[in-house]
């Protein structure tokens, strides 16, 4: 079984974001970019499936600017076999919407016929949490979102999902789209030899036109603003002072 | 035009607070019809919410699994200008699927409905807010409940049955849901959260004890959940729950941006941390630099 993993290049999760002065979005020029953390988890899971002999090949795909190559190389260095870059934008500030991403991924799925797509639960830039579900819909496939455990047996996958109130286990027919949550695994670091080896792994470049997909956005940005900041308050010297403040000043207890 | 609002049903129970808050969020968009896929008791409860014009009731066809539920929503979508729900795992599982089937985008975690086409939502873990205008024929979105007050009760909407068909693509196996007498995290007036600093699952009982003393819900940082001190659905933050209580008490939590994303709209924030440089103090109204193992027991005793 082939496993397909979409990986997104996003602002590094440690970077403090700044809104552009013209309100069109967040400033991404000269900012450290990394693989979306959830996608690292998805890549890790795919590699583990291969190590267990469940998966035969791990294909990673990224949609965006050509610099997303770096993200794909990282995935290859972790252990993915092959990469596809769909160059859909020239400006790093152009974010391709989940619906268009899902349509492009559906095109890749038609070419590659994977038995499983492992996506991240959400991209930490747009925080949309949508692409995996949309892809499953477009393909008419089953889906299992927010996975914290995954077991593939024959033509089914058993998935434990992080839901309201706790955990839910479901069984989905393969092929399926699974979106991964934080606790599924701890992604490995790529070793230096593997980073070198990844440079020789195949990376194909495509365009949205190759899949006949229109990536024009459905949403237009009216404005982007920074949230009202919170001011640091005071330090209290003791538990007694804390209780007094909460009672008399804040009136919350 | 009318709004179809998908109501959360968890373990056969209506998630009343989330649904009531979502009702407030969409009230200005038109007549609201609630879709309840679950037992008749959940539909009856939904019918009592103020602002619900009608309740569409489907006998639960498969534990709210996405495939069958999305098909149901799509079968009812004609005639609605907006399809919405509270931004919970229940709806975030389903509405993007619905949107794709309708060939429209989805908007997650809407914090303000500006007009029928324009919505505000947080991006980058709440470090920016974006107002976007949709050109889609139907608007599909989830709303961040912490941003809205709950609609009251006293409604008496008519309940009409709709037919649902479970999908054979997926099957429910088991729910492991913890029940608790404590208030719900997303609706509690006070939340006490513990982080990695608490150090062990056994010591997390200290956080729970403080919460019980205050009549509060219990939350946790990702590090506390990952370390097994607390269950996953207690996680507060960018990828957990978003809360905005009157009082939020962060104990042994450093204040990473991903955690702040879930609690920085709380009215009053208290931080207890032994590191006076911890970033949590930059957002705390009252900071206590102390070892939690002395401060929390003292707090419990003196409250
Ligand atoms: C994609 C992604 C999503 C994430 N989503 C979330 C999320 O939703 N929610 C979330 O919380 N995090 C999230 N994180 C993780 C986040 O970045 C931090 O790692 C996490 O919040 C740290 O948790 P913590 O504050 O408990 O632990 P630490 O950062 O380790 O802080 C522990 C604190 O406890 C204090 N302490 C230790 N011992 C004591 C003591 N005896 N008394 C008093 N204080 C003590 C220390 O001084 C320290 O400040 C996410 C990360 C990523 C990459
Ligand atoms: N441009 C993209 N390129 C590759 N994968 C993507 C892209 N956008 C989204 N994804 C995948 O979809 C997941 C969810 O993203 P989102 O729906 O945008 O929150 C991500 O974790 C990725 O696995």
TrEMBL record, chain A:
Q: Which cofactor does it need?
A: AMP
Molecular function per GO? electron transfer activity
Keyword Electron transport: yes or no?
A: yes
- Pfam families from the entry? ETF (PF01012)
Keyword annotations for this protein, in alphabetical order, are: Electron transport, Transport
How does this protein assemble?
Heterodimer of an alpha and a beta subunit.
Which protein family is named in the record?
Belongs to the ETF beta-subunit/FixA family.
Instruction: Specify the protein name.
Output: Electron transfer flavoprotein subunit beta
UniProtKB/TrEMBL annotation, chain B:
Binding of FAD, residues: 196, 221-222, 235-239, 252-259, 273
**Pfam families assigned to the protein according to its UniProt record, in alphabetical order:** ETF, ETF_alpha
Single GO term (MF): flavin adenine dinucleotide binding
Classification via InterPro entries: DHS-like_NAD/FAD-binding_dom (IPR029035), ETF_a/b_N (IPR014730), ETF_a/FixB (IPR001308), ETF_alpha_N (IPR033947), ETF_asu_C (IPR014731), ETF_asu_C_CS (IPR018206), Rossmann-like_a/b/a_fold (IPR014729)
The annotation note on the cofactor reads: Binds 1 FAD per dimer.
- Identify which cofactors the protein needs according to its UniProt entry: FAD
Keyword annotations: Electron transport, FAD, Flavoprotein, Transport
What PROSITE patterns does the entry give?
ETF_ALPHA
Segments forming domain Electron transfer flavoprotein alpha/beta-subunit N-terminal: 3-176
Q: Which GO terms describe its biological process?
A: fatty acid beta-oxidation using acyl-CoA dehydrogenase
Query: What's the stated role of this polypeptide?
Result: The electron transfer flavoprotein serves as a specific electron acceptor for other dehydrogenases. It transfers the electrons to the main respiratory chain via ETF-ubiquinone oxidoreductase (ETF dehydrogenase).
Concerning its family, UniProt says: Belongs to the ETF alpha-subunit/FixB family.
Record-linked PANTHER family? ELECTRON TRANSFER FLAVOPROTEIN ALPHA, ELECTRON TRANSFER FLAVOPROTEIN SUBUNIT ALPHA, MITOCHONDRIAL
Q: What is this protein called?
A: Electron transfer flavoprotein subunit alpha
């Amino acid at each position: 079984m082939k496993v397909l993993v979409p990986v997104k290049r996003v602002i590094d999760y440690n970077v403090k974001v700044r809104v552009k002065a013209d309100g069109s979005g967040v400033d991404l020029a000269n900012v450290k970019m990394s693989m979306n953390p959830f996608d690292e988890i998805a890549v890790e899971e795919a590699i583990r499936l291969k190590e267990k002999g469940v998966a035969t090949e791990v294909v990673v795909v990224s949609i965006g600017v050509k610099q997303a190559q770096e993200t794909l190389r990282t995935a290859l260095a972790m252990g993915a076999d092959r990469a596809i870059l769909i160059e859909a934008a020239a400006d790093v500030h152009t974010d391709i919407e989940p619906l268009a991403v899902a349509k492009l991924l559906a095109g890749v799925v038609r070419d590659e016929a994977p038995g499983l797509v492992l996506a991240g639960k959400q991209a930490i830039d747009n925080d949309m949490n949508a692409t995996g579900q949309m892809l499953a819909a477009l393909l008419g496939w089953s889906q299992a979102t927010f996975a914290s455990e995954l077991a593939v047996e024959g033509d089914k996958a058993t998935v434990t999902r992080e839901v309201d109130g706790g955990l839910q286990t479901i069984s989905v027919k393969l092929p399926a789209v699974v979106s991964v949550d934080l606790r599924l695994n701890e992604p490995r670091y790529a070793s230096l030899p593997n980073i070198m080896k990844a440079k020789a792994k195949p990376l194909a470049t495509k365009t949205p036109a190759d899949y006949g997909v229109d990536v024009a956005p459905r949403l237009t940005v009216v404005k982007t603003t920074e949230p009202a900041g919170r001011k640091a308050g005071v330090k209290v010297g003791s538990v007694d002072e804390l209780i007094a403040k909460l009672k008399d000043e804040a009136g919350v207890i | 035009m009318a709004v179809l609002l998908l109501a959360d049903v968890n373990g056969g129970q209506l998630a009343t607070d989330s649904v009531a808050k979502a009702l407030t969020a969409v009230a200005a968009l038109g007549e609201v019809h609630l879709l309840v896929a679950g037992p008749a008791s959940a539909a009856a409860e939904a019918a009592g919410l103020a602002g619900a014009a009608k309740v569409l009731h489907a006998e639960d066809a498969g534990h709210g699994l996405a495939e069958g539920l999305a098909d149901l929503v799509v079968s009812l979508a004609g005639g609605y200008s907006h399809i919405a729900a509270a931004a919970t795992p229940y709806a975030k599982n389903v509405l993007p699927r619905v949107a794709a089937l309708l060939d429209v985008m989805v908007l997650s975690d809407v914090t303000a409905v500006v007009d029928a086409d324009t919505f505000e939502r947080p991006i980058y873990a709440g470090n920016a807010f974006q107002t976007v205008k949709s050109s889609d024929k139907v608007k599909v979105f989830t709303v961040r409940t912490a941003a809205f007050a709950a609609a009251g009760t006293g409604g008496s909407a008519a309940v009409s049955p709709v037919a649902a068909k479970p999908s054979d693509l997926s099957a429910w196996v088991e729910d492991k849901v913890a029940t608790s007498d404590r208030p719900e995290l997303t609706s509690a007036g006070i939340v006490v959260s513990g982080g990695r600093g608490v150090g062990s699952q056994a010591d997390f009982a200290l956080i729970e004890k403080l919460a019980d003393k205050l009549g509060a819900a219990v939350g946790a940082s990702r590090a506390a959940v990952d370390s097994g001190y607390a269950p996953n659905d207690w996680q507060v933050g960018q990828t957990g729950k978003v809360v905005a209580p009157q009082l939020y008490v962060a104990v042994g939590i450093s204040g990473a941006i991903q955690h702040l994303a879930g609690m920085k709209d709380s009215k009053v924030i208290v931080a207890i941390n032994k590191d006076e440089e911890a970033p949590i103090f930059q957002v705390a109204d009252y900071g206590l630099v102390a070892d939690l193992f002395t401060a929390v027991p003292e707090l419990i005793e003196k409250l």
